[in-house]
Every structure is written in C-alpha cells, then in structure tokens.
Amino acid sequence: STERSSVVQCGINICFCDSLQGGVNDKITLTAYITIALLEIPMPVTHSVVRNALFCLETAADEKENHVYTKALMAYAFALAGKEEKRKALLGSLEKEAVKKHGSVHWQRPGKEPEVDLPYYRYRAPSAEVEMTAYVLLAHLTTQPAPSQEELSLASLIAKWISGQQNPNGGFSSTQ
C-alpha cells in the first residue's frame, strides 16, 4: 500500500507517493521534482507555475540545512532553468559533501555507516545514493553554452562511480 498525500506548494497542487524522493520527505524536495519535470517537458521558465516553483526553490536554496539529496535536485532544476549562479552555488556546496575515493566521486546520505572494503565483496550503494549522484552529474552537464573542462573532468569521475554501481546485467539495484 502506497501512502498518498496532497500538497499545495507555491501554487502547485499535486498528489504524490511518499516512497519516492530518496528518503527525503519534504515540500522543497517535491517542488524540485515537479519543477524538473515541468522544465523537461519543456515548459518555459516564464510560465507562472514554473516561476512560482523556482521562486520557492531559490528561497530554499539559501537555507543551510538542506539535505544533500534536495541540493542535488535543486542544482539540476536550476541548471534546466538557466539559473547559473544558483546552480554553481549548490554544486559548490555539494562538492564539500562529496565522497572522493578510488578515482571516483559520489554523494551519500548523511550519517551513513562507512562502507567496509572486503577483498571478495563488491559494495553497491542504495538506489537513493545512485539517484542523487546522477542528479549532480546532470547538473554539471546541463549548462549553457557548454560545461567547462573542469566540470567535464569532475563529471567523468561521477560517471565512473555510477557505472561502478551497475549489476552484472547492466542495471542497478532498483528502477528508481
């Protein structure tokens, strides 16, 4: 049974499932999801619903207590909207929280137990961590006119980690 809720956030009235959102259950994360979907349609940033949603995200982006997953979504939403200053600020904040090891870069949930390196065991991250890392990758690559060489270098390290999370069949631990 899936819990369903109705939310009115910044003029957006929708119904959503609580099981999504990478374990983060708040209105800002939901607003970022919806904004991304609308911008990918593509709906213009001048549309009143998109404008209102972006205003809410801009206000929320200034808060220091945002979850890493929420920051990743907001960074991608701002990239799609062409809001370079906000995109770069969030990516800078995310870089401080990045896990850099084995020649790759990824993000994980705060307070997570460190993974144990065992000789014959290959650790695979939970799907929410793969998802948030993928959103950061999209935020790095979605910029106009084109990503800088520095961003492309970081993007390749992120892509390396994501591809390392694939199972032997080429898929991931979930469809999320």
UniProtKB/TrEMBL annotation:
Residues 19-176 form the Alpha-macroglobulin-like TED domain. SUPFAM superfamilies: Terpenoid cyclases/Protein prenyltransferases (SSF48239). One of its GO terms (cellular component) is extracellular space. This is PZP protein. It comes from Lophotis ruficrista. The gene is Pzp_0.
